[in-house]
Each structure stands twice: as C-alpha cells, then as structure tokens.
Amino acid sequence: MQTVSELDALRAAMAGLRRDGASIALVPTMGALHQGHLALVREAKQACDHVVASIFVNPTQFGANEDLDAYPRQLAEDSAMLEAEGVSLLWAPDVKAMYPEGFGTEVAVSKLTENFCGASRPGHFDGVATVVCKLFNQVMPDQAFFGEKDFQQLTVIRAMARDLDLSRPHASAIVGVPTVREPDGLAMSSRNRYLSPSDRERAATLPRAMREAIARIEEGADVTRALAALEDDLLSAGFDEVDYAELVDARTLEQLAALTSAPARLLVAARIGGTRLIDNMKVGAG
Ligand SMILES: Nc1ncnc2c1ncn2[C@@H]1O[C@H](COP(=O)(O)OP(=O)(O)OP(=O)(O)O)[C@@H](O)[C@H]1O
Ligand SMILES: CC(C)(CO)[C@@H](O)C(=O)[O-]
Ligand code: BAL
C-alpha cells in the first residue's frame, strides 16, 4: 500500500492505479478505524479493482465547541489495518494540503440538512459536503462507500452528487453499507472510545430501546407515544439528553407521524456523559 499526503503525489499514484482501465473505489474516513470502516473497505474491494482510502480529520465539519482536538489520531495503526485489507492507496493529506491558503468555496446542501444533526451541529454538513466533493474530484472514483450509521450524511452526499453532476461517481455509484454493531448492539463508532466503562454499558440501551420502539410502531402503536417512551427509556438508563428521536421517510428525511408504505427509518441522537451517539434503524417493510 502506498501512502500519499500531497495532491500531486495522489494524482500520480491514481494515474498508476488506473492503467489498464482498472476500476477505483473510494472509502472516505476520519481514521481511528474499527470494524465498521473495515466493512466499507471489504465491500469496496469486492466491487472494484483498487480501493483508495482517505484519512482526514476535517476541521470544517466540527463546531467551535466540538471534539476536533480530542478526535483520535492514529495514522500508523490505521495504515497497518488498511494494508492488511488489501487497500492500494492511502490518501492522508494534512489541513494545508486539503485547504491551501486562500481556500474560500463551500458546498451547501439545503433542506436535507435542516433538521436532526444539521440543526444541532450548525455548519456540519457544509463541511462534510465540501470535503467529500473535494475527495471525489481528487480521486475520481467509480464508486464511493459510506456507512448507513451516518444516515443523514449518506442522504446528503447522495443529493450533493446528484445535484452537482459528479459524474464519477454519479449518484447511483454511492454505496451505503449497513451499520456494524458491537455484540451488545451498540453501533461501532470512533467516538465510543470516549465512553467511561459505566457509560459504555449504559450506551447499549440505545439500540435496545430503539428496537423496542420499532416493535411498538410496527405493531400499530401511536408513533408520538412510542418515541416519547423511547426518550424516557434512554433518560432512565442514564443518558443525559436526547437530541432527537424521529421517524422519517428514508428517502426525503421528512418526519412521519405514522407508518405508511414509504420506506421509514428511526433516527436518534443522544448524549451520555460528554459523548454524543447517533444511531438509526429501518422501520416496517417499506
Ligand atoms: N459502525 C459502522 N458501520 C458501518 N459504517 C460505519 C460505522 N461507523 C462509521 N462508519 C462509516 O465509516 C465512514 C467514516 O466514518 P468516521 O471516520 O466518521 O467514523 P465514525 O466511527 O463514524 O466516527 P465518529 O465517531 O466520528 O462518528 C463513514 O461513511 C461512516 O458512516
Ligand atoms: C465522510 C467523512 C469522511 C467526511 O469528512 C466523515 O464525515 C466521516 O468520516 O463520516
Ligand atoms: N461520522 C460522521 C463525522 C462526524 O461526526 O463529524
């Protein structure tokens, strides 16, 4: 596996990989890799001849009071994991290489970013859309792989790629990969390592309470009541705050007051200690 941290070197390496018409998959990450990231790499490897992974802790998607400085950075360990998975190229730019002096362009996706994580993390999705747009233009992959764990992010990236005619990858070449979970059901996340042992134990209530709420909704319970019970379950289990718990149309992220034939998803974000956890699950058969 080759590692590059400058754009010229990336372009030269990409030209080498593309020789003979080989197809390219991109797996964007912020590092601190776990099995969730490796699931993306494995799907990418099945789909294309070469996998290019990126590691970049993108400052523009962090709010002023968020964990940019504390975010785990472990390039040597991550690099060994990617190499073991057969990744061909690691793109690991520093902030100056990604945002050279004078950088002043932003990609903003409207509507889909208004609620949920977009409301509680103002500017977050502008940062995500801008850096992912740059990654697409830098690598020009045939397919790009993102986790369903960040469901709103996946929806926003699909919309951006469609709206901006990012022909490689075009919207249909963005692949969503199902969430990988710990044995107790907690969605894997780099931020889980912030949890104290007791908060880590309590955190498993999140997927459990979500499954219970989904069962109630699928049995025909009133959605507002089921979501209120979910919030109560989380607060009783020791969560400090429920940021949102909503049933949405999985395509438009519009809130649903009842289950319909539309594909539906339960989206939740909740804080335990200083750590904000997000999760989402499919609801119903739509
Ligand atoms: N448990 C998971 N299952 C599947 N994909 C995941 C999982 N966790 C993260 N991903 C995906 O990996 C990619 C990189 O995510 P990122 O590096 O932010 O990791 P993360 O664990 O989500 O970190 P964070 O704690 O910052 O949310 C994203 O597309 C994300 O959706
Ligand atoms: C897509 C991404 C790599 C953009 O920085 C990040 O938001 C992430 O890791 O999910
Ligand atoms: N995994 C999404 C990136 C973020 O929370 O900033």
TrEMBL record:
Query: Single GO molecular-function term?
Result: ligase activity
The reaction(s) this protein catalyses: (R)-pantoate + beta-alanine + ATP = (R)-pantothenate + AMP + diphosphate + H(+)
Subcellular location as annotated: Cytoplasm
Its annotated pathway?
Cofactor biosynthesis; (R)-pantothenate biosynthesis; (R)-pantothenate from (R)-pantoate and beta-alanine: step 1/1
Q: Which residues bind (R)-pantoate?
A: 61, 153
Name the positions where beta-alanine binds: 61
The EC number on file is: 6.3.2.1
Q: Which Pfam family is one of those matched by this entry?
A: Pantoate_ligase
InterPro entries (alphabetical): Cyt_trans-like, Pantoate_ligase, Pantoate_ligase_C, Rossmann-like_a/b/a_fold
Q: What is its main location?
A: cytoplasm
State where ATP binds: 30-37, 147-150, 180, 188-191
Q: Does the keyword Ligase apply?
A: yes
Quote the catalytic residue positions.
37 (proton donor)
CDD domains registered for this protein in UniProt: PanC
Write out the function statement from the record. Catalyzes the condensation of pantoate with beta-alanine in an ATP-dependent reaction via a pantoyl-adenylate intermediate.
Q: Family per UniProt?
A: Belongs to the pantothenate synthetase family.
Extra notes?
The reaction proceeds by a bi uni uni bi ping pong mechanism.
**What quaternary structure, including any partners, is listed in this protein's UniProt entry?**
Homodimer.
Protein's name according to its UniProt entry: Pantothenate synthetase
**What species does this protein belong to?**
Altererythrobacter arenosus
Lineage, highest ranks first: Bacteria, Pseudomonadati, Pseudomonadota, Alphaproteobacteria, Sphingomonadales
